[in-house]
Every structure is written in structure tokens, then in C-alpha cells.
Amino acid sequence: MASSKLSPCLIFLQIIFLVFNSANAQLRVGFYKDTCPKAEAIVKEVMHQVMKVAPSLSGPLLRMHFHDCFVRGCDGSVLLNSSTGQAEKDSPPNLSLRGYQVIDRVKTALEKECPGAVSCADIVAIVARDVTVATMGPFWEVETGRRDGRVSNFSEPLTNLPPFSANISQLISMFRSKGLSVKDLVVLSGGHTIGTSHCSSFSSRLYNSTGKNGTDPTLDSEYIEKLKSRCKVGDQTTLVEMDPGSVRTFDNSYYTLVAKRRGLFQSDAALLDNSETKAYIKLQSAATHKSTFFKDFGVSMINMGRVGVLTGKAGEIRKVCSKVK
């Protein structure tokens, strides 16, 4: 007869499972239905005004959600300021982020409508969805109920954010450490369909790699010449489109470029080094109106938006997104 007693290990796993489910149970679509029913409409209106005058912020604002969730979870810690320059936003991987003033503008509008109700972490998540829609990308229902973290460390982006130079093993490992799958990796990489990057993020592929004349042998030779014409040795300021030709349109052309060995970053090229990610790239690069990318992207963004969330009485609801209470 089986023993009715549970092993300490099993009890521990059950506790972890219950805690995880408890947190996610409080993260839901329509969280602000009673406390701030116009919340998403207010965010949408502010973003409509912003995108009319600054459409180039769509890429950085989408990336901001990624960078927030991969460090301490989706808790708005990427927004915090430090008087000593030791916050996440001061760390090298985050120096290219832009649009903090947009988050502040949204927060001001929400505080006027319903003071102390909507977290900065949720604002970042909703804004990421709205800039995707504004660039002709997919709509998905954003789960809300996140609360804001109080800690932001300079060092943590360095170890938690996948670098542009990452190989496929590193990428898979880093995504799995956040509870995200290999499919989430290749789908979320598709966010590179909008936005730009500084030459310094990929110049090593042009001048300091293992191929002829220091170029990366995994990068298309014609594309190398085009990039070299834009990015000279040591260039730290020039911006290059991540998805040439449709930098402000959210579409599946990113996968067509990667399939042709024209992914801008080494981390893009690395997606061809795994059977599952390569198969997805081939599927999307061959797809037209029947592409599953939009649906997949919404699902993976929801998955990412659940990483490390603070709910219930954890954390706080900041009045100003750059400052703890």
C-alpha cells in the first residue's frame, strides 16, 4: 500500500507551484475594470498622439517591455532613476532605450483619471502592445495586475539580457531561465522587424570576425558591403534599420532576411543553428497572408508578460514611474 506521506521534495515543489499559480491568478485581462475602467483607452489615446509625431519610438518602446521583463521580471524596474547612475537604465544594454518620457506622459494621464491605480509595469506592457498595433502589427489582450518593484541594479541587465553576440545555446538557456520556450525565443526575436540599432551593436561582424577581411562568414556578403558603407570602424552613433525597407511596419519580413543570412545581429543569425528555430524561420519566410506570426507573437508576448510579476500586496503602485514611493 502506498504511503500517504509526501516527501519533503514533493511538498516543496507543490508550494512553489501554488505560489506561482497564485501570482498568475491575479494577473488577468480587465484587472482595472473597476478601479480604472478607461485605463487602456487612455493609454491608446496618448500613444496615438505620440505615434503621429514620433513613430520612430515604436521599436524602443517595444524593446522596453523585453528589457523590463528579463531583469527582475515585468516590474517596471527599468524605469527607475538612480542619483548615482547605478540603475538598470544606466547599464550598457539599456543605454539605447528611448521613450521614458512617453511612459511618464501616459502615467500622468492615468493619475489624473484614477490616482494610484495603474502600475508603471502594466503601462509598459500595454504600451508595447499599442505600438505594435500602431505599426500594423497584431493586437492581443494584455493581462494586467502587475505591481512595481522597488529595486533596480546596474549589474543585472549585463547578466540577464541576451547580448547581440549570443549563440543559440546561450539564447535558449537565457529564455528557458525565464520560463520561456524555444518557440518564444524565435517568435519574440521577430520584434526586430521594427526599430533601428547603432552600428556598435553589430560592427564586430563587419570588421572583427573570422571570415575574409575580418567579416562574419554567416552574414551575406552583399549585405556586409551595404552595412560597411553605413558603419565605419569605431562608429558609435549611426543608426541602421534592423529590417531594411519596413522599419516602421510590423510584418514577417524579418524572417525572410534571416533566412537569406541578412539578420543584423549575431543573435539573429544564431536562429539558423537550431532545428526548431530554423524551421520556424523557413515557415514564416515562405508565408504570405497565411502567416501565423501575428498570432504567435501575441501568445509569446503574453507569456513574456508573466515573467516574475509582482501581484497582490507585493511591490507598490508608483505615482511617478522613475521614483519609488
UniProtKB/TrEMBL annotation:
Instruction: Summarize where substrate binds, as residue positions.
Output: 162
Q: Which cysteines are joined by disulfide bonds?
A: 36-114, 69-74, 120-321, 199-231
Respond yes or no to whether keyword Calcium is given for this record: yes
Query: What CDD domains is this protein classified in?
Result: secretory_peroxidase
Signal sequence region: 1-25
Which keywords does the record carry?
Calcium, Disulfide bond, Glycoprotein, Heme, Hydrogen peroxide, Iron, Metal-binding, Oxidoreductase, Peroxidase, Secreted, Signal
Co-factor: note: Binds 2 calcium ions per subunit. Binds 1 heme b (iron(II)-protoporphyrin IX) group per subunit.
Q: Does the keyword Zinc apply?
A: no
| Catalysed reactions, as listed in the record | 2 a phenolic donor + H2O2 = 2 a phenolic radical donor + 2 H2O
Q: Where does Ca(2+) 1 bind?
A: 68, 71, 73, 75, 77, 88
List ligand-binding residues for heme b.
192
Q: What is this protein called?
A: peroxidase
* Naturally occurring in which organism (per UniProt): Populus tomentosa
